[in-house]
Amino acid sequence: MSLLIQTIRNTGKSHSFQKLIQAPLSSCTCLLRRKSSDVSKKFLSFDEVVSQRRDEARRSLVVQVNSESSFNELYGYCSNYASINGIHHYKNAGGEHFMLIEFSTEDNLKEILRSCGSHQKDNDIMALQSPFLWFRACSGKKEKIAPTSNTLITKNGNAAIDENLLCEELGSCSTVSDQIQLLYDKTMLNDLGIRLRYMVARQLEIVFESLYANIAVRPFGSSVNGFGKMGCDLDLVLSNNLTDEMSDPTKRLVYQEKKSEGGRGPWQRHMELVGELLELRIVGATRVQRILHARVPIVKYAHEFTNIDCDLCYNNMSGVHMSELLWMYGSLDPRVRPLTFLVRRWAAAVGLTNQHPGRWITNFPLTLMVLFFLQQKTNDGFILPSFKNLVNRAGKEDIRIAEENVNCTFLRDMNKLPLECYSQNQSNLETLLLQFFEYYAQFDFQEKAISIIEGHPVRKPNALPLYIVNPLEPALNVSRNVSFEECERFKLEVRNAAWQLEAGLEGEKSDDWGVLGLIEKRASRNLKKLLRVGNSHRLVSVKDLFNDNEENISEEGLRSKLQRLTQTRHENVEKSVKEMKQMIATQNATEKKDQKIKFKNSQVANEVFRIRRNKMV
Ligand code: CTP
Ligand code: MG
């Protein structure tokens, strides 16, 4: 409860509190699961949250069904075997329906798995150990299933947010701080998104358990560090799960081991094997790509049952500890995550970040920049402690040494951090956002490096344009890829943003009011302006431009339609036509690519899909 009270104190709003208590039970499990003996506990540790999520995944299955209305039959069927905690429904990009069922115990799940069937008739298909199943239509006489008083916990829980609706809601917020909070509430990775990510990890773990002793597959990165948005990629690490108990020297029978010698080579070979397994033994895994010559070899794949793009690497525990650190900073003060979300979203909108790797900044260093800004000791006081402070307070229980002897030791239990070490400033989100832009608009990027270890700027050890110290490996710069041009663009964009935000606060509320002008993509913002019908606020939508049966509209047709609907000046229409054509071309290219990818699967997979579609409940 103290966590809830802290939320209200810091944001000065009852809104968050109401949201929390009205939220579905499942999304509050972290809070509800606290034992009565934990009353003095203000913060949960990352390990506690992760072990609860891993435990949940061990008790859960994802079942493909015919539609949302299969709930009653599925519930009735499964409850014959095991006791159910709850069922969540969602659809993937292909419009296929799935239900994630959480059972009460792991034994319950084993019971249900023992009852599963397989495709006996398809000789070329080998059944897989997997938590991903499908629900076959009843053969013969249908069993009568009594209606259950239970209902789905979530319906369509994976649906992408309607951006137009979001913008409308943001437009009707009364303060910029409310806008920032709303953007966070509406776009953060939800409970089902987190559950599905742990299911994808569990699926791999089940397969790898049969090949390696002590193996664990853990999500890291934005899926677990508290800064992930709906639809974010899933970073996974395959690692050794050696417990103290297993390395107990009194245990006399010890596994014979096969050593990996010779630098990176053996890891690459392990990852080759992982790539093969993903293609052959992991249901739902498609588009497997091996990137084995990188510093950290990875295998990328898309999980089509859950719509999640995954990056799997080997033995990268420092990435997990880094996620833990980010998660802890995010949980220390309720303003950290909403502010970071806004900054990440703004950076994507102005094109500072990009989905593809390159010479630009990425979300991870950008997040470190926000944390660093919140560590600054201004007249109002600071919000976050330096990393050095957390390291100095670490105890024996906090010692963690990752691969290549990277020391990842820092205080884990934030309850041990004295109150005066954080949240010393009561500024609202609007003030913080403006100060963030102003801070970096005047930052001396030429001479100084950003270091969350110190919590203040330090001298740059080399001439790279942007220097952000890796807190776990201080000799490394996490933004070493960023070019001079991109760094200049960053400086320009923070200045623009500060100016735009400040200017927007004066005078009447316009369409670009508050954060709206910062987070909408420039192209779509310009297009929106051009597509206004007369003076009204109604936009001409793409639907207005195309008839249902009109697949390819000519440039001439588009021009005359736009002129008619918007009554805009000639040169504006020309610009608009060009942008529209570009938008349509990109969309077509993406659709074509998706189609190609979809049908890339083997004939067998298509056949299974066909059989299932006909037989699924
Ligand atoms: N990481 C790291 N050092 C780096 C880059 C990444 O330790 N130089 C770790 C961080 O824990 C980071 C994670 O790897 O969170 C995943 O990196 P990435 O996918 O680039 O960032 P995310 O935080 O997951 O953000 P996004 O939503 O853009 O994927
Ligand atoms: Mg990531």
From TrEMBL:
Gene: LOC113512841
Pfam families assigned to the protein according to its UniProt record, in alphabetical order: MTPAP-like_central, PAP_assoc
UniProt-listed SUPFAM superfamilies: Nucleotidyltransferase, PAP/OAS1 substrate-binding domain
Taxonomy, superkingdom: Eukaryota
The keyword rRNA-binding is annotated on this UniProt entry: no
Residue intervals of the Poly(A) RNA polymerase mitochondrial-like central palm domain: 177-330
Cofactor section: Mg(2+); Mn(2+)
One Gene Ontology term from the biological process aspect of the record: RNA 3'-end processing
Protein name: Poly(A) RNA polymerase, mitochondrial-like
Magnesium recorded as keyword: yes
Stretches assigned to the PAP-associated domain: 428-461
Any one GO molecular function term: metal ion binding
Keyword entries, A-Z: Magnesium, Metal-binding, Transferase
Family annotation (PANTHER family): POLY A POLYMERASE CID PAP -RELATED (PTHR12271), POLY(A) RNA POLYMERASE, MITOCHONDRIAL (PTHR12271:SF133)
